[in-house]
């Protein structure tokens, strides 16, 4: 695995656009974990990700602290519909006269989020599900199903790239060479230069690797990770992508080898992964500090374990 330079930028310029990092943690867990982004052009304002429902006031305050408001938004882009990325969409759309762009496979679950909420409650666990809050229904007229290719909002030109693996309804966005990968490239703790997989239940690891290879062909010069910040530099981004593929394969191999010993005990696997994956050492204190990151690692180990059971 390849460690990255420690970074924690608040904004970057992408051509004639400015992209601002926004806080979107749930109000009960301010852990510097979930980020939304505001793309600011001369005329257009585009929000990427909303964060969970219980982060709505946090997101709103973060926008206002940078001199903007939800009423100014011209569009919302969602990489996927999981609660930490899109759970606050219903509240956001009540305040902006705009539409949200979502993968076609995710659209119906925003209109009726009952199954989405049920699955999230099982996967996240009670504490984190309650911290995020359930998604609320969104009017179908406010949603636009994406297709791969070009999308334009005012002067903001977006390339939509469908990237299944983490979820079948996952997509990434490229804006002037700046990549918004959602969870396709794992979670990057930018101020530690380390990252972990995002492989919850129903992740298809082989498909996720195919999607990473697809994103590598775009050769972005920077990435805005929903978890948890900007990484700048083409070489850094390509190294992280290659490192994420290696990391996925390392976690997969370790869990496959240890499945008879550890069975369903995710913390047993974590002990072995700390030996196999040197990046986990850099995240030791973060795993103690951030319940959201720790829960994500738990879900990722469990997801790969379940994937191993299916393919072995």
Summarize, please.
The protein is built from twelve helices and 15 strands. With 312 residues, the chain is α/β, with parallel strands linked by helices. The strands form three sheets. Strands 1-2-3-4-5-6-7 form a seven-stranded mixed beta sheet.
Topology diagram in text:
Layout: E1 11-14, E2 17-23, E3 35-40, E4 45-48, H1 56-65, E5 75-77, H2 83-86, H3 89-95, E6 99-102, H4 107-111, H5 114-124, H6 126-132, E7 143-145, E8 149-153, E9 156-162, E10 171-175, E11 178-180, E12 187-189, E13 194-196, H7 205-216, E14 222-225, E15 229-232, H8 234-262, H9 266-276, H10 279-282, H11 284-289, H12 291-311
Parallel strand pairs: 4-5, 5-6, 6-7, 11-14
Antiparallel strand pairs: 1-2, 2-3, 3-4, 8-9, 9-10, 10-11, 12-13, 14-15
Helix pairs in contact: 5-6, 7-8, 8-9, 8-12
What would your notes on this structure say?
Pfam families: Lactamase_B. InterPro entries: Metallo-B-lactamas, NDM-1-like, RibonucZ/Hydroxyglut_hydro, ST1585_MBL-fold. Residues 33-227 form the Metallo-beta-lactamase domain. This is Beta-lactamase domain protein. It is a single chain. The protein has 312 residues and is α/β, with parallel strands linked by helices. The chain has a single domain (11-311), classed as Ribonuclease Z/Hydroxyacylglutathione hydrolase-like (Metallo-beta-lactamase, Chain A), CATH 3.60.15.10. It is built from 12 helices and 15 strands. The protein has helices at 56-65, 83-86, 89-95, 107-111, 114-124, 126-132, 205-216, 234-262, 266-276, 279-282, 284-289, 291-311; strands at residues 11-14, 17-23, 35-40, 45-48, 75-77, 99-102, 143-145, 149-153, 156-162, 171-175, 178-180, 187-189, 194-196, 222-225, 229-232. A 7-stranded mixed β-sheet has the order 1-2-3-4-5-6-7. It has a 6-stranded mixed β-sheet with strand order 8-9-10-11-14-15, with helices on one face. A two-stranded antiparallel sheet has the order 12-13.
């Amino acid at each position: 695995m390849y460690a990255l330079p420690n970074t924690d930028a608040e904004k970057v310029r992408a051509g004639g656009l400015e992209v601002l990092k926004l806080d979107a943690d749930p109000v009960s867990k301010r852990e510097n974990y979930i980020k939304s982004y505001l793309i600011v052009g001369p005329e257009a304002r585009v929000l990427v990700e909303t964060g969970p429902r219980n982060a709505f006031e946090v997101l709103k305050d973060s926008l206002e602290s940078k001199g903007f408001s939800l009423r100014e938004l011209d569009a919302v882009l969602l990489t996927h519909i999981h609660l930490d990325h899109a759970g606050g969409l219903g509240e956001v759309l009540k305040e902006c006269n705009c539409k949200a762009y979502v993968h076609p496979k995710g659209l119906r679950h925003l209109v009726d989020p009952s199954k989405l909420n049920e699955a999230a409650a099982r996967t996240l666990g009670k504490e984190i599900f309650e911290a995020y809050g359930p998604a609320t229904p969104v009017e179908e007229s406010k949603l636009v199903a994406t297709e791969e290719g070009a999308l334009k909002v005012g002067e903001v030109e977006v390339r939509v790239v469908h990237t299944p693996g983490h979820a079948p309804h996952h997509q990434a966005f490229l804006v002037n060479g700046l990549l918004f990968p959602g969870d396709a490239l794992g979670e990057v703790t930018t101020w530690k230069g380390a990252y972990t997989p995002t492989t919850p239940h129903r992740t298809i690891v082989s498909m996720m690797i195919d999607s990473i290879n697809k994103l590598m062909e775009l050769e972005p010069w920077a990435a805005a990770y929903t978890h948890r910040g900007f990484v700048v530099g083409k070489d850094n981004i390509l190294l992280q992508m290659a490192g994420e593929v290696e990391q996925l394969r390392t976690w997969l191999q370790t869990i496959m080898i240890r499945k008879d010993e550890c069975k369903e005990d995710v913390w047993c696997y974590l002990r072995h992964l700390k030996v196999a994956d040197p990046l986990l050492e850099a995240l030791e204190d973060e795993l103690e500090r951030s319940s959201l990151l720790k829960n994500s690692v738990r879900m990722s180990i469990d997801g790969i374990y379940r994937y191993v059971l299916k393919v072995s």
